[in-house]
Amino acid sequence: MDAVSRNLDQGNMESDDREGAVADLKTQLGEMQIGGGGEMLIDNYDVVDEKQEAAIITPDDSVEEADPLANDFEAMKARIQTPTPDLEIETETEHTWTIENWRALSKKERGPVFECGGHPWRILLFPFGNNVDHASLYLEQGREEEEKAPEGWYACVQFTLVMWNKNDPSIYLHHSAQHRFNAEESDWGFTRFGDLRKLFMASWEDKGRPMIENESVNITAYVRIYKDPTGVLWHNFINYDSKKETGMVGLKNQGATCYLNSLLQSLYFTNAFRKAIYQIPTDHEVDRRNSAWALQRLFYLLQTDKDAVSTQELTVSFGWETKQIFEQQDVQELSRILMERMEKRMKGTEAENALANMFVGKMKTYISCINVDYESSRIEDFWDVQLNVSGNKCLDDSFKDYIQVETMDGENKYFAEGHGLQDARKGVIFESFPQVLHLQLKRFEYDIHRDAMMKVNDRYEFPEIWDASPYLSESADKSEPYIYQLHGVLVHSGDFNAGHYYAFLKPTADGHFYRFDDDRVTRATLKEALDDNFGGDYANLTNGNTGVRNPYTRTMSTKRSMSAYMLVYIRQSRQKDILLDVAEADTPTHLSRRLNEERAEKERIRKEQQEAHLYLPVDVIDDEGFTAYEGFDLTSTIWDLDPAIPSNPKRYRVLRSQSVDDFLKTLASERNTPPEHFRFWVMVNRQNKTVRPDQPITEGSLTMEGAFNKHGSREKSFRLWLEKADTFENGRAIWPEFAPQASSTAPILIFLKYFDVDLQRLLGVGHIYLKKSSKVSDLVPLIANTMGWSAQSSSRSNLSSKGSESTLVSPSRSVQSNASSENILPPSNRSPSSDKSSNTLIGDIPVPLLALYEEIKHSMIEPMKPKSTLAQAEIQDGDIVCFQKAISDRETSALLSSGRYSDARDFYDYLLNRVSVSFSPKNVTDIDKEVFSLVLSRKTTYDQLAAKVADHLHVSASHIRFATIHSTTQRPKQTVKPAKDTDLGYILRPHFGGFNNSNQRDDALVYEVLEMSVKELESKKNLKVTLLSEGITKEETFDILVPKTGTINDLLRGLQKKAGLPDAVVERMRILEVSQSKIHKELMDQTSVVPIQEFATLYAEVIPEDEENAQDGEKAIYAFHFDKEPSRPHGVPFKFVLKPLERFEDTKERLKTRTGIKGKQFEKIRFCLVQRSKFSIAITLENDDILYDKAINPDDFLGLDHVNKNRAGGVKGDSIFIR
């Protein structure tokens, strides 16, 4: 059956048309076959839209009891309207409406009003169908249209509508539904309640009479109103406001961060934790990479915002990228890492040790001898407790399992110092529990039968109040009760591969539980927080259902897919300390100030976006910015708008209707200068990808939009250069006349840059004007004038005036010059490093010999010929001329030897390849090593790179080694090998394997100061050796440097030095080379290390006594571990001695000692004989077998079949991290 929507439009259909439509339908109903085969259509003015999400409760046809009569209201209600489990009935009633003269009814009829729960109700009937060929029947609230429902009114109603023959109450039709009625959804029911043809048929379901008999029928409404303990019963959550309904807000899900959201909400409502986070000083560290600031910000927004808060700032501070955002991670691991980061930030502050005092308990691991007074124990801190769910029914069962005592006896006796081998008890006991106890329930485990990680959905109960004292040691301080109150239940719904996380939290000690499901917060009952998350089988499955569909896996299951995976308990005696109020005064003042600034900025941006069509973005540069700029063009090639950099353009938001003159007045006012002293030049994009001034704007009356349309490029902003005059006449600025470029007398606007050889800087110095017919050499006196290179008049005579006389035009005055081009020192004639005199005279002005270059584009810096005219040199408005002083060969050599530049072209090349590289120590424990940055050229060679870093660190360059950095984990990635043809650009961005190097940072390296030179290091081989002790159960890996031509004995001596082993132990050691978890060969002391690859797996162990003291007739066999199939080896292989006539039952006892594997773990191992000739077959060994006789061939192996616990259990890649 279809549901109906809430809206019933009154419509504007003409009465004649309506009566005609109804009359036609009545005529059809009077025929033998109603509808005449045609489709019944009703005008749309009164259509009630259908809804698919209505909850329809179908009758259970399997009940064999006698059907009640429709006029037996109590019996009918008991049969057709079963109460909803776990809901409390507020009130209920039934009401019958008798309908007469069915064919005379109008299109829509409403029955009499009746009362239930203090509110009016009535039945709504569409006798001829609501746009369908069925009678349509609904229940609606009975207020008149002009009478409004009370604000916030709603009712949770379970109802059944029954149509029945008033002459024969055994003939009836009914449908049931449940709905949350409110002012917006005031009606609900069934568009296709009953087929009109069938309702009027002579015999209803072989009863011998029709449903609607003699144009009359009864309709009974059974209405039951339920109490709504949470306020969201059957809520559709359209326009739901968490803040309004609960006073709290949720967190937005970025993709797969629901697990993070549930943890963050739990920590937020641990108020003492929130207060401690606020106490971390971050007022001078407001940075997107600062996780403490980001967490403070998130908590404050949860505290003050009206809408759900984004976690994006926090995950950015963690260093997470898209990959981490869309991967569900382990909550326990995330919690521990987050605690570690925050605890580190709290050191030295008033919050120091706050987290440890709150979350850390103590447990004791012990081995206690039974027959002598001896105990070995170790007390450790714990932040949370991991509890087994599988095999346990409740929380107490898990704790009993956790502290279970293992008896060490027989072959497994404990060696007690001073007492020898003794029977002992081994176990764990708690010395104290923290104020806030985090319990991690192991809902995910490896299933050996399915060979996969699976979720444990078994029923597992936990109480609201829990006593932890039974699990404390006898010596523990119990002066204060260890009674805990449940504060939070973090839930996972789904299975291992797909699911969703949410949390039930109790923000106050005496308050209610609330469900925090990403951005939605709702009130919850105690049953929803506890019982519904125990897991286990579904109860009360109805209508023959065999299970419930999991919304994430789309499979049917009889077990609940939602279950608790983490519990948060708070010690009752400390609840006031943990759940204390966090007031506005507890939040850092800079936090609210910064967030208010962010909100104001967001509001400004929102307003700007709304009004964007009225404004034009205008970017302005001037001479002040140009003279502060060091780089290509007149300003940043990307037109960077960062206002903190004085050389960057300034962005203005200008009304499109504002005139150019008015905007000019605004800029003049900022500079406290009359507007007549300025004019605008339009900046254009040239074909060589530079941006230069093209022409001045002379029509000040133009609107900014008009000027942009006339002169602007296709850029989004209008780019302008603001020129300031320095020549005036009667207070008016005198501008050089602007003439077509074809004219030889046209003044050309030229920008000047100066390469200062001494300071190694390239800066703008201003602009000049020069006629196109002037020669390049005529630039020199103007440069001298601009640079202020003037002195006392020289007694030397003026230079020869053979050069053609030229008129020089500048913004300030006309200058006549008799300069001879022969006295200029351009690169085309002589090198800037000539040893000749570095000065000449132009008139009375001593001017340094100069080299001139034209900056055509970033990669094209060309020398200029002094005898060429500007026209011949193709100089035009906006071109840039760079000049430098000439220097001697001796000065050039000195500069080059110090790694500096003597030629402007080389410095331009440096700028083109300039990059800022961050250097950090390789080992994060090297707190004495600094993190620093250097500005370098991508063409810097490896030797030059090492020299610059060594100079900064004051160490030898030969002892520095570099490595690249992984862009995601920020960890060292690959060691950089020194080579003469390797430059910095290649190191940061290798040309090969673009895919493999896409995750490498191109702006940072790690460095390591070695004890030996890199060259000496290259003469050695680095081998990883794993030292085995306690059988094969304890492993410790070392990196050992040995000479490339060394021997295994050198390797052992290196291991001795690294591990601090005595000589007596090393003399009994051997090295095993392992391949695919099986012994490949034993390496003798004098074996050369040359054929051993650096990635080879090597194990070092002390030769066991039974092997050293092997008797005649005994032999050895290699053993390895595998998981189900011999082709799936894992673990540490070993060598084992076989004894003649020894039953395998006794052999296993020696295997316990050899491997160090004991207890239940050893009992789970299946021992097999694996023959190389039949490697895929593993022959199980029984206790009575004699392995010595079965292992005939020297290539036979002893196989240990057991689960590989080190195998990756899921789909995760890199482990989770927080930067």
UniProtKB/TrEMBL annotation:
GO terms for cellular component: cytosol; nucleus. Residues 807-823 have a biased composition (Polar residues). GO terms for biological process: protein deubiquitination; proteolysis; regulation of protein stability. Pfam families: MATH_2 (PF22486), UCH (PF00443), USP7_C2 (PF14533), USP7_ICP0_bdg (PF12436). It comes from the Eukaryota. It is found in: Nucleus. Gene3D superfamilies: Apoptosis, Tumor Necrosis Factor Receptor Associated Protein 2, Chain A, Cysteine proteinases, Phosphatidylinositol 3-kinase Catalytic Subunit, Chain A, domain 1. SMART domains: MATH. Its EC number is 3.4.19.12. Residues 249-572 form the USP domain. Keywords: Hydrolase, Nucleus, Protease, Thiol protease, Ubl conjugation pathway. Belongs to the peptidase C19 family. This is ubiquitinyl hydrolase 1. It comes from Heterodermia speciosa. The lineage of its organism: Eukaryota, Fungi, Dikarya, Ascomycota, Pezizomycotina.
